[in-house]
Amino acid sequence: MSFLTATTEPQAAPTAPTRPHYRVTGRRVLRSEWAKLWSLRSTWITLALGLLFLLVFGLIVSWQFAAGNLDSDFDRSTAVDLSLFGVPFAQLALGVLGVLVTAGEYSTGMIRSTLAAVPRRLPVLWSKAALYGLVALAVGTVGAFVTFLVGGRLVSGTSAAQSLSDAGVARSLLGAGLYLGLVGVIGTGLGALLRSVAGGISVLVGTLILVPGLTSLLPSSWQENVSPYLPSNAGESMFALTHDSSTLSPGAGLAVFVGWTVLVLAGAAYRLQRNDV
Amino acid sequence: MIEAQLLTKRYGEKTAVDRLDFTVKPGTVTGFLGPNGAGKSTTMRMIVGLDAPTSGSVTVNGRRYGQHRAPLQEVGALLEAKSIHPGRSAYQHLNALALTHGIPRRRVDEVIDLAGLGSVAKKRAGAFSLGMGQRLGIAAALLGDPQTVMLDEPVNGLDPEGVLWIRNLLTGLGAEGRTVFISSHLMSEMALVADHLIIVGRGRLLADTTVRDLVREAGGNTVKVATQDPAMLRDVLAGPGVDITGQVGSEELHVTGLSAREIGLKAAQHAIPLFELSARTVSLEEAFMDLTRDAVEYHGTTTGIDTPGRAA
Fold first, then answer.
1. What ipTM was assigned to the predicted interfaces of this complex?
2. Domain range for B241
3. Is B140 on the interface with A (CB under 8 A)?
4. Which of A30, A267, B246, B259 has CA 20 to 30 A from B110's CA?
5. What CA–CA distance (Å, rounded) separates B151 from B184?
6. Whole-prediction pTM value?
7. CATH classification at residue B100
8. Which chain B residue's Cα is nearest to A41?
9. What is the CATH number of the domain that holds B253?
């Protein structure tokens, strides 16, 4: 039976005292996800894009305002409003990257490696959401403040002039950063919930941009009750400088927007825990 | 050690894995064989907790995979489907996995060398050939220096050089005393490396055997000999470990336990004329085909009839 020559006889397993003691911990999962985030080119490109949208759009609008080129819609604008003009664009970039962080693992198959290493699964979701949320928060906050500091100079001699020490200005800018951070977290949640890059981006864009427009289809008595609580409107309340009866206060806006974020993350956690990959 | 007990996985009406019971013993190379669609990959995914069993259980070293503190140190798995982000380099991929367990960077470099990826470790994995991708998958499987290594169809689509590399690697892992569990639909490939075989078809266990037994049961390594006086030849050849069969009235005998050469020499010593003397070796491939034929045919033609009864 010559074909058996290549096989090996069963042996006793070698004793294990010399083997190193590895262990999966929450902190290590965080470190791994941190390394994964920064080892992809898409992270750098999309973050740069998000920052660029904040800066470029905010500064262009401020510059045009100072030059008197904007129409009457902008007459009552403040320096904060103008600086945060890029937020809707930046939120797309940062939200899409959030979707990529989780859904990208499914589209590539990486998720199988990830979950084989961390079979408890949930630490992966929490790590991704927390780390990416903080990164988006940092980019958003830095972008908002830099835009205001530069854009504020552009409009310093106009009716929009404001300084950082004016009431509500710092809060607005911080609120915008926080909003963008939470959009990032929602992106990661949607990506993990839907397990599809295209699906995650569609739902993200739909809820943040299209749904507010659709509320006009509702009876007007409903609009007042529903509209302020939609993710986009609640989020906007977080960084708007002025509030009226149709919008939530910054604190309430933050609470509602955090609620939406928690809801998406809970759905993502449920699916991650229950479904095969 | 991998133990499956009544392991079952259903996808709606279809039962991919059907009450599978088997044990992969430590320190052996165990082949997991079956035609395509027999449930091998599903079983392997359940072993590492990617798929949850519908019923039954499978444990690794006495615990469910997910309950281990350092799962990569218990089982290293190469799954059939690609499990790599194409945007990361081999080094970045392995390092990210290593970080979850606190596996030192030194070990990452080690497995890169072991898999022969040194020259391409910094390149994007998306640009890897199939063979390179497979080597990266194996490097990941070996990262935690696991006692058990599980590979799903590792030679699929590899060029001869890659096949040879895997074959040597498996033999080496077995020689180190590791438990190796390797799936394939190619019996010939298994025969070269495995000592134990678990054969499945349509999700069911068909055989839990050794290569040696499988061949013996299939009537392997028989010598056919024809002579005028079969009764006398029988007496001459009889001895311990020798099995002789033949029909009454026939001049043919089937002998196992002796080579054609030995039979010829003994017959000559006793001056028994032989008309025919031929060694008949049943290939493992044939034995495997015999065993799985029903499973394959059943699968192809009568699934529709069988399914309602089993789903009930």
1. 0.88
2. 221-280
3. yes
4. A30
5. 9
6. 0.85
7. 3.40.50.300
8. B87
9. 3.30.70
